[in-house]
Write a structure and sequence with these properties.
The chain is an alpha/beta fold. About 35% of the residues lie in helices and about 20% in strands. The protein has 10 helices and 12 strands. A 5-stranded mixed beta sheet has the order 3-2-1-4-7. It has a 5-stranded mixed beta sheet with strand order 10-9-8-11-12, sandwiched between helices. Strands 5-6 form a two-stranded antiparallel sheet.
Length: about 325
């Protein structure tokens, strides 16, 4: 029987871990909220707690795959997620390898790259050659898969669609730029914009509350999601003409808004992607839902376990 791999997903909202089989089946799930304002070691302990829960009563694993928010330095295994302030050049890959005594390979990628790999292997990107996964959540990340392998770039940050500028006069972004997709479409920014327009939340004033209000017909909540979706569509139109993408799969917490976010995104994409080859690209919801990142981290881990980098190897 093929040994499972351990998949880890570290984002600005939650830390999750699970076992993933060769066919993409996820089991032994564990998660907890990310202590985003905590120090480095508190964050590390939270991650170890989640990993320990996922591995409870588990036998040997073949490898470990980690998807983490970026930016990062894949060659050295250092992570500096914009939305997790306690980790700056944190040696996540080496710390995880040390935790397991160097006994299994550990592979690290941006969480959106992991999501894209999951969708490529088992979801919306199946059968494509060039695809992009987009995660719209606490931040906005992107990952590219070309002919079965992640397109990393020199430091592992290629595909970071969240920092494509969609409005040069737009809000400042945590990256230091201005008018980035992330500054407009990430969940907290969408909520902040809605509140500034006079939205009156009924409970927690977060993305879940905003989506619920939009579904009930709240005009400001609807406008906030439409604004975010339009920005997403513009960014995707820019990406597709550069990369000749065949599929763009959109997932993440805010993507749970469904057509409230995706319909304006598709409309903007169709408006701004004018070239024939660009218009052939499909902008679609991720099929694997909240598990896409874990499935993709599992795909990366299994590839590492057999000593390769190409899913088709």
């Amino acid at each position: 029987m093929t040994r499972p791999v351990l998949a880890v997903d570290v984002g600005g909202t939650k830390i999750a871990a699970a076992l993933v089989d060769a066919d993409g089946t996820v089991s032994h799930r564990a998660k907890q909220p990310t202590p985003v304002t905590a120090g480095a070691e508190v964050l590390w302990k939270a991650l170890l707690d989640v990993v320990g829960e996922a591995l409870r009563d588990c036998g040997d694993i073949a490898a470990i795959g980690i998807g983490c928010g970026g930016p990062m330095k894949v060659d050295t295994g250092l992570v500096s997620p914009l939305n997790i302030v306690g980790w700056r050049d944190f040696p996540l890959r080496d710390r995880m390898s040390q935790r397991f005594g160097g006994a299994v390979p550990v592979v690290l990628r941006n969480d959106a790259v992991a999501m894209a790999m999951g969708e490529y292997a088992h979801g919306a990107g199946a059968g494509s050659r060039v695809m992009m996964g987009v995660v719209v959540s606490t931040g906005v990340g992107g990952g590219l898969v070309v002919d079965g392998a992640p397109l990393d770039g020199p430091t592992g940050n290629a595909g970071h669609v969240g920092h494509i500028v969609v409005d040069p006069d737009g809000p400042d972004c945590a990256c230091g730029g201005r008018g980035c997709l992330e500054a407009i479409a990430r969940g907290p920014a969408v909520v902040e914009w809605a509140l500034a327009q006079g939205w009156q939340p009924t409970s927690s004033a977060d993305g879940v509350d905003l989506v619920a209000a939009a579904r009930e017909g709240d005009a400001i909540a609807l406008a906030a999601l439409t604004r975010a979706g339009r920005a997403l569509g513009i960014a995707c139109a820019s990406a597709v003409v550069l990369l000749e993408l065949e599929v763009i799969a959109v997932g993440g917490g805010l993507a749970n808004a469904g057509d409230l976010l995706l319909s304006p995104a598709v409309a903007a994409f169709e408006r701004y992607a004018g070239l024939d080859y660009a218009r052939r690209c499909r902008l679609v919801p991720a099929q694997l839902g909240d598990e896409a990142g874990l499935v993709g981290a599992g795909v990366l881990a299994r590839t590492a376990a057999r000593g390769g980098t190409d899913l088709k190897a």
